[in-house]
Amino acid sequence: MDYLQYKQSVETAIENLKLPTDCSRVGEPLFRPATLYAWIFEWVLEFESAKYIRVWEQYGRCAGLQESRRARFAFHYGLIPKKDGNGKILRDDGDPVDIRIDDYETGQGGVQAHLHYGAPQPHYRQESVVGLQLADLEMFAFIKAVLKHRKSGKTLAKILKFRIK
Amino acid sequence: MTKSREIFLSLGDAERYIRGFEGKYGISSEDLLRDPTLREKVPEDDAFEWVAFLDLKKEIETAQEELHLEYLADLESAGPGIPHREIRAELLAA
Question: For chain B, what are the domain ranges?
Answer without folding.
Answer: 11-93
